[in-house]
From TrEMBL:
Residues 397-590 form the BD-FAE-like domain. InterPro entries: AB_hydrolase_fold (IPR029058), BD-FAE-like_dom (IPR049492), Pectin_lyas_fold (IPR012334), Pectin_lyase_fold/virulence (IPR011050), Pectinesterase_cat (IPR000070), Pectinesterase_Tyr_AS (IPR018040). GO terms for molecular function: pectinesterase activity. It comes from Spirosoma rhododendri. GO terms for cellular component: cell outer membrane. It catalyses: [(1->4)-alpha-D-galacturonosyl methyl ester](n) + n H2O = [(1->4)-alpha-D-galacturonosyl](n) + n methanol + n H(+). This is Pectinesterase. Pfam families: BD-FAE, Pectinesterase. Residues 33-330 form the Pectinesterase catalytic domain. The lineage of its organism: Bacteria, Pseudomonadati, Bacteroidota, Cytophagia, Cytophagales. It comes from the Bacteria.
Amino acid sequence: MPRLYLLLFFLLLTSRLMAQSPVVQFPYPTSFTVAKDGSGNFKTIQEAVNSVRDLSQVQVLIYIKNGTYREKLVVPSWKTNISLIGESEAGTIITGDDYAGKPFPGGIDATGRAKFITYTTHTVLIEGNDIILENLTIENTANRNRQGPRVEQAVALHVEGDRCIVRHCRLLGHQDTLYMATSTSRQLYQDCYIEGTVDFLFGEATVVFQRCTIKSLANSWITAASTRPGQPFGFVFLDCALTADSSVTSVYLGRPWRPYARTVFIRTQMGPHIRPEGWDNWAKTTNYKTTFYAEYQSRGPGATPQQRVDWAKQLTDPEAAQYTLKRIFDSDSGWNPAPGLTYRRDTSFTVSSAYLNARKKHPQISIADPKLAKGVTVAANWPYCTRNGKTLFLDAFYPPVNPKKPRPAVLLIHGGGWRTGDRSMNVAMAKQLANAGYVAVTVDYRLSTDSLYPAAVHDLKDAVRWLRAQADTLGIDTSRIAAMGCSAGGQLAALLGTTGDLSALEGSGCTSGHSSIVQAIVDVDGLLAFDHPESGEGDDSRATSAATHWFGGPKTETVALWREASPLTYVNRTDTKPAPILILNSSVDRMHAGRDALLAVYKARGIYTEVYTFADAPHPFWLFNPWFEPTMQYTMAFLKRVLR
């Protein structure tokens, strides 16, 4: 009994103590906000990084509000799993101006040096593993703001950690802008803009640049890889664009800083500033004998494979197919950043978002949603092509198949500035067309967040070939196929209909043995000429134009592509015959760019045209009542005339 009383006394005392004392917790926050005005958790980025738990096993998000942060930011090796996410790519700026040879403030640094050297000039230094940088500008302004002679090495971003991802960032500097250090580091740069002068991409790491714009500010060299012996990959550029200042005329792709340098450009758009020989031998050493410099399907005026140095290589199709993110990065420790990271979907343009915006001026509108007629089949999520690990899908809406009476088909191409939107936005049109006896197919294609021009054109020509290959299954008359698109999709539909089987835009097809020619065009408020005073896609900055994102640079730097993608460019060619065209326009003048010039050529060549403009209609009028029904009535009357 005494023992029982003692136990009861102990439990009673413990419960009272617990009731009187607060519960002690050790919280580790997983997100912070940085704002210079004091509205966040911290005023500096470094304070936020320092507050993250050492060797964190969960991803900690640090949101950084717009502003200019003058910091020499260091993410040390014991700070892991951190995402630094800016409010906007151009508005969240981390800046510094240290350069090699600059006296160290206070006399000497931690290594006993009195002056900065290349490896200590960084604005941002990443030593920790699993760090993500997104929506930031990181710059070293040493050459921009300093009076007197030009300084040399001045690093903006220096990365030593493993599994580092940099997305939608601007890296600005001059010589040595980006230092990708250490042979054990793996780094992925997606949708970034990087500029510099001499060897501004350098280092020992294994690195992939995907859909990045690389701008040269001087006649010099872009890369200086120092890949270590036995390292299977060095720098790999996938679907990037190389541009330059207007004064720049002579730039090499790279030179071997070390004897085992490895650099490969795959499907890269190269401006006229790239030298015909492509690669330079560093100081006439023998380093070139053990390097691996290669290209695959380079495009543009700087792509001259027959003139490259004889120690560089042009990859074969099987060799190029080996350059996947999984194979490049998945070493013994295992890292495949492909799932969920290689394609960042832009969802800013949807039927709902367009409706909310349009009803501000047109409160009477409603979203078009016709009923599907009895007997119409919907075959959804049909894969029609796989490129670079990404599978493209389409949905087919078709009446009962009659082998003796095949039907005309309409390929429906969605809009969204070549950057956003998806095939679901054309479902209402597909239903209406299928109800009227057409085979209607809504299709996805690669957007600028995934691949630059002309990837979308190649995809859509493949989709046309796919329709012909599936003619028996869907009951399609292969001599009666129309391309119909809205906004950016209208431009693409017009390009399909004015270029025919022109080999320059065919691409390497997923479906072979069939033609990509279409017999009719329905262009719903899509541009017909980019290089046109009314287009609204002019000589503006990289960050403000949808076309600039699609072409990988502003018109001043990529004008040849802007003209190549304009349907107006092809209507006078004798090797192609444009298809008859129906143009349906809103009241937005800039969406009429190139229309009158194209119609004049059509008239001179005797090719059928129709044009209708909806007064006081917003740009995405085709999505809404009261414009949807007349849009479809005009379309079907036109198709009935030209697809006899």
